[in-house]
Description:
Helices cover 52% and strands 21% of the residues. Among the domains are: 59-256, no CATH class; 433-472 and 647-793, no CATH class; 499-620, Beta Barrel (Barwin-like endoglucanases), CATH 2.40.40. It is α+β, with helices and mostly antiparallel strands.
Amino acid sequence: xxxxxxxxxxxxxxxxxxxxxxxxxxxxxxxxxxxxxxxxxxxxxxxxxxxxxxxxxxxxxxxxxxxxxxxxxxxxxxxxxxxxxxxxxxxxxxxxxxxxxxxxxxxxxxxxxxxxxxxxxxxxxxxxxxxxxxxxxxxxxxxxxxxxxxxxxxxxxxxxxxxxxxxxxxxxxxxxxxxxxxxxxxxxxxxxxxxxxxxxxxxxxxxxxxxxxxxxxxxxxxxxxxxxxxxxxxxxxxxxxxxxxxxxxxxxxxxxxxxxxxxxxxxxxxxxxxxxxxxxxxxxxxxxxxxxxxxxxxxxxxxxxxxxxxxxxxxxxxxxxxxxxxxxxxxxxxxxxxxxxxxxxxxxxxxxxxxxxxxxxxxxxxxxxxxxxxxxxxxxxxxxxxxxxxxxxxxxxxxxxxxxxxxxxxxxxxxxxxxxxxxxxxxxxxxxxxxxxxxxxxxxxxxxxxxxxxxxxxxxxxxxxxxxxxxxxxxxxxxxxxxxxxxxxxxxxxxxxxxxxxxxxxxxxxxxxxxxxxxxxxxxxxxxxxxxxxxxxxxxxxxxxxxxxxxxxxxxxxxxxxxxxxxxxxxxxxxxxxxxxxxxxxxxxxxxxxxxxxxxxxxxxxxxxxxxxxxxxxxxxxxxxxxxxxxxxxxxxxxxxxxxxxxxxxxxxxxxxxxxxxxxxxxxxxxxxxxxxxxxxxxxxxxxxxxxxxxxxxxxxxxxxxxxxxxxxxxxxxxxxxxxxxxxxxxxxxxxxxxxxxxxxxxxxxxxxxxxxxxxxxxxxxxxxxxxxxxxxxxxxxxxxxxxxxxxx
Length: 793
């Protein structure tokens, strides 16, 4: 073994703890990159593969009822490569011994002619059998979506009950299936696999149950090469206008695709921002540790040059030291990233259902992680290596020139007498090395910012749940009617058992147009002063529904490029399809969706259809068993299409989100603690190595071990104290940037950081500092005074 290699191994043995902490910081950056981008890769790769295999449609439309004779005209649309029609119905579903309200989506499927678009993938069991389909044998065969089946413990051979056009029918589950339209399943963009299930049933049987023979109410379109999505949507609107079509749209507004794309974008952001911070801290540590390590070996460098080693050989020696530390970090990071990546992909597999979703460690991701990490490390340390190895032997044999010291500000102000000698020593040391102290403070602050970034999501979700389920939806149960019904139904609802209040709403699909800007969505007609289903902004302020204009969410107003007082063209998409000009009376900063509001009475007057409602919200008495009894009663009402329990929906959402957020927060907190320990411990160890002679001299002069440790660790304590407010500011800015990056038109993630989160992040940094201080204190206590004092000045 070469002499320099022996020296390299000896140096690594002497600085093993410092090398390990740096390697762990490097590992955190690599692991964060691999984890986030492997999850991003698994989602995007699974999506693209499944979309292509299942021939996922590009354009979608929903209508009331259109004859199959319209299909040739749909097929002839310019830009449409293939058009497929189908039938769908939303129904209440019941499971034995389950009181929770469940929404089922029935989709018609022809067992003899499977769909060419949005193909159904059978996961277990068998496909529908034409010979057995229908209610003639006492049950209607069905395939059920995999997520719902697993959440409810359903398997082939089980049965559920669906209220189909006022008649209770048994659905016999014969298979578990997937479809690209329902990779993400839930209501209103919320993950709720326990409360929402998709059921594929025989097409002819479903048509007969709803008098839809020879008709359809859904259209899916596959675009041809180079086709314009907007042009196809316009053609669909014209052809389906008379059949009650509403909101033809592309994939961007298809809920499953939109939620999946949002998660993919979020992983891309997280995989870029956080690993960059980790690698920046690792580069800083390598620069500081190696630079100061080399500086303490000036005499050794001089001796090596005197023995004939040139600058290149000595530089390569220290570069090997760097590469060994980084290599250890990269190996640990790749292993940890693979484990965490599999964990994250497993979590996503519970929310996003693909036929094949698995973790894969792509070679290109590994190469990027390795080269970026090595490049950052080399760039950070090459200047420190070059500065020392280029010294002439005679100059390197001399101790570094002492710095030029000046009185500190407190000394110029005459305040030094109020400080203890130990504190003055600490402050002088920091003042003489301001850059080093500043970088240490910044490194610790970054670790605190990362803890805040991981924990603030829980605060934001808690606020989201509070606003949506306590301030917006103040009622307990929401019932949607099969069709718009005279408002007298509200009096009937008020007489239901355990109901204490009722509030009706009318929703109509519309197209809002302002010049070249347009939006398709729902215009909600509410009570003048809604109380059970309110309009509430991010600050908790409630809004009244306007009488003579539209109240828009601010994001919708921005999308349409309108301000308060501007006129909007409102094209109703049902009934007489009225076209109106209405002013924008105000905007509201809501959390979810792009929404437009108007008083229900005004909306009904504009539609010229009388006082109608198509949903109502109920407040339920707090008596034990009151809500289950009411839900059971609502299931028997023929005009009620579906029922939603606020408490059940909130619980189902929390079951999914809280566990995921806890995992993300725990991982980021662990990484942040590694960074804090790496920064604090390495700076303390190097300070001990540089000031060992001074500390030993103080011990000889009569200072106790505690007093000597206080001088060394006092600098550490002050740096941590200075880092805390800076860390809070950086955490705020970093979290704010992430929220901005993942924000979409449909969803505004609330940005909230509670005092408890700031306190938790500070506690993590203090814990890291305490552990580092304990280790360094033990080394101070173990100082060999004679050996240290033999060090040549």
